[in-house]
Amino acid sequence: SKYDLLVLNGVVVTDQETGNFDIAVKDGKIAKVVIRGSLNGAKATKTIDAEGGMVMPGGIDAHVHLAEPALFGKGQSADNYETGTRSAISGGTTTLITFAPQRKSEPSLLAALEATHALARDNCYTDYSFHLICSNAGPQAISEFKALREAGISSLKIYMTYEALQLQDSEILDVLFEARKQKIVTMIHAENGAIIDWTIKKLEEKKLFAPKYHATSHPPVAEIEATYRAVSLSEFIDVPILIVHVSSPAAAKHISDAQKRGLPVYAETCPQYLFLTRKDLDKPGFEGAKCVCSPPPREGEQDHEGIWQGLEDGTFTVLSSDHCPFIYDNTEIGKKSCIDSEYPNGHFKYIPNGCPGVETRLSLALSANRLKLQKFVEVTSTNAAKLYGLYPRKGALLAGVSDADLTIWYPDGTKEFELTNSMLHHNVDYTPYEGRTMKQWPRYTVLRGEVVWAKDEGGLIASKKGFGQFLKRDASSLAGSRSQEEWNVENF
Ligand code: DUC
Ligand code: ZN
Ligand code: ZN
Ligand code: ZN
Description:
By secondary structure, the protein is α/β, with parallel strands linked by helices. It has helices at about 80-90, 110-120, 140-145, 145-150, 170-180, 195-205, 215, 220-235, 250-260, 270-275, 300-315, 360-370, 375-385; strands at about 5-15, 20-25, 30-35, 45-50, 55, 60-65, 95-100, 125-135, 155-160, 185-190, 240-245, 265-270, 320, 405-410, 415-420, 435-440, 440-445, 450-455, 460. The protein contains 13 helices and 19 strands. The strands form three sheets. Strands 1, 2, 3, 4, 5, 14, 17, 18 and 19 form a nine-stranded mixed β-sheet that branches. The protein has an eight-stranded parallel β-sheet with strand order 6-7-8-9-10-11-12-13.
């Protein structure tokens, strides 16, 4: 029979093994993965010669903000579903899980889901799903968890900070309790909102406005305290959680201690905590403001080292981008602009919190040459598929089972260059990683057997917009609640 696509002469790397294999694709699925040379003579509509470059399951980025309204009260998203997913696919990522945000004034999560479907539908270059952001955990939202699962949503994000989003501990317990029943993974933004708000006031009293004070106002202790509290709440309910965007090694220590005790506590980190520091917030002009994100980049090399270590040793389940690009001078929303004569480089309190990075995540991490290759695949693809209920359709190269989503890299040592924003496909006029030496970039990205990115053949294949499909997700396949029994207050 004729195949749709052959990928020959690659070094195939999955979370499980590395080897010289050829791949055959049929009807959007992996049909065969066999020893190099065994497909010689097979017929196919298209053949890619990987020339000894690595071939991996397509990247999965499970933390991306697209087309969100000014929820944090500070700015609108610069990327919509078209520009965000084209950026992703050009950087080797074939699946995104973005956020469907519920406003506090909106009691329904299902309404938020429908609104986000409308933004994404027919606009995506990648396959996609959504995590619901639950900022109103009232009875209606809680009663909808079951319907969310039926709609293919098996994860939620909640916040312990930001007035517009924050849940109180009692509300977090309500969410975790129902999440346990419905086998939903709760992602938690763990920072202590009171420490942050209190410190902001102290800084303002002293007229300290510069972007670097963003880091001062989000100290490690705010993250450490909230992380430990999140772990404690999840232990009490006996339900899995994922702590998102962990920046501080001391917070990671609470997570690994919980894991050593057998708790289903998972964690995520992001490139900004491996490559940026507080000093980036103090770059001249408005450049510092562009590196403001929450939690902030930490002090220096020791912090980076601790975070790499956590990726290596399994404390972190996933490395996501937290792509969160903003339009800075947005007067439309009637909020105070972050730029003013009193603070020409930006007032830290009004600077939107987030950096772009969906396109650079894989190449930055691979170029750093810090992780074993199979570990790299695990944290950038396979584990996200497992945690969020997409495995083994995504995150694997299992014949007859997995979608033919591939990231094909240049042969080693052939692609060193300096990163510039002009290469990137997001709708943002900067990258925090401008000028970095990159050792790798995806040569091809393949989604369900279709080549969607071919760097040497014009790059992005624009006719593929809308090829990306919504993915209905199952429950997590990683370890869940420790007890199979219903939660019973008398047991505590
Ligand atoms: N949390 C995120 O997940 N993204 C950007 C800002 C934030 O606080
Ligand atoms: Zn967050
Ligand atoms: Zn570093
Ligand atoms: Zn985020």
